[in-house]
Design brief:
The chain is mostly helical and 330 residues long. Strands 1-2 form a two-stranded antiparallel ribbon. A hairpin with a 2-residue loop joins strand 1 and strand 2. The protein is 87% helix and 1% strand.
């Protein structure tokens, strides 16, 4: 039988041995975890490297394609046309050069032309080519319209922020800089352009007039006029901007009421304008030979496509009249 001292000594040795085994097991687990973490990190680094390589390849292919398109555009773009087109692209915030845009127009024309060639009709080929070449211009017009609409929607908030800045003691330029930092696009980029042009030596009045010409907004035209007059004769600009904000708010309310009341007429005009094209497409799908007689019929001087042109002209006139009636200026 063991003495009490030997029993305590035996238990201590057993406890130390078990602790040593547990410590070694813990170290092995840590080593395994570190090894797995190392493998995971290596896999992540490899995946990141592959993604970066693919990104570089895509950027290289994109820049190469952009260079080819640009070279095509340089050949077919007159210098006078390039200047005016560059202004429109800048106004629409489309990140393309004039020669690149003209090249896209040319490619769109060729695509439409070859689609028309499949119908074995020269008229259809030319018509689809012209439509294809017109689509990029429609893109510019839609982009400009959306940008101007977004700009008009932000004018009220911009004026209120600018008036508050002037009341807090900022100068007009400091207020513009503050508003440019806090405003969303496109207001921010337009105000930053005004500040940049002014810092490069351009007169502030000229920069404001240039901005007014770009956005073509009646509300901003009122703001520009007031600021120009105030800089010449003086006055409390913050108070004037508050009054303009109230005027613009009332005008926006009236515009909203008018849009609500004319929405049905606009929808009717859109449906009436799209209906002939929809019916023509349905007939073409059901019986192509029937609709193609409009383009292939001949009798003396008369051609079937004369009727197509006649119908399109009156279609455009009708839609224009409807839109003019429901377009009420406030």
């Amino acid at each position: 039988m063991k003495s009490p001292g030997e029993e305590v000594k035996h238990r201590m040795e057993q406890y130390i041995a078990e602790s040593s085994v547990a410590a070694k097991k813990y170290e092995r687990d840590i080593d395994d975890d570190l090894l797995m973490d190392g493998f995971d990190q290596e896999e992540e680094e490899e995946d990141q490297w592959l993604m970066e390589a693919r990104g570089r390849k895509k950027r290289k292919q994109g820049s190469r394609l952009q260079e080819i398109i640009g070279n095509i555009g340089l050949i077919i773009t007159p210098k006078s046309m390039a200047i005016s087109l560059a202004e429109k692209l800048a106004e629409a915030s489309i990140p393309l050069k004039a020669n690149e845009f003209v090249a896209i127009q040319f490619l769109a024309f060729m695509i439409g032309f070859f689609m028309g060639v499949t119908s074995k009709s020269l008229f259809m080929a030319i018509l689809l080519g012209v439509v294809g070449a017109f689509l990029p211009n429609l893109w510019i017009k839609i982009a400009i319209k959306r940008k101007r609409q977004a700009f008009n929607d932000q004018i009220l908030g911009t004026l209120m922020s600018l008036a508050n800045g002037l009341k807090a003691g900022y100068s007009f330029l400091q207020g513009l800089e503050m508003v440019a930092k806090e405003s969303p696009e496109p207001m921010a980029s337009e105000l930053k352009r005004v500040l940049k042009e002014n810092s490069l030596g351009m007169n502030l009045e000229d920069t404001l007039i240039a901005l007014n010409n770009r956005v073509a907004s009646p509300d901003w035209d009122l703001v520009t006029t007031v600021v120009l007059i105030q800089r010449q004769v003086g006055g409390n600009l913050a108070e004037i901007l508050d009054k303009i904000s109230h005027t613009i708010r009332q005008r926006m309310k009236i515009k909203g009421d008018i849009q609500t009341k004319t929405a049905q007429a606009k929808a009717s005009g859109a449906i009436v304008g799209a209906l002939p094209f929809g019916i023509a497409m349905m007939i073409y799908v059901i019986n192509p030979q029937f609709i193609m007689k409009l383009f292939t019929f001949k009798r003396g001087f008369f051609r079937g496509w004369f009727l197509v042109i006649f119908g399109l002209v009156w279609e455009v006139i009708g839609v224009a009249i409807i839109m003019k009636i429901v377009d009420i200026e406030v």
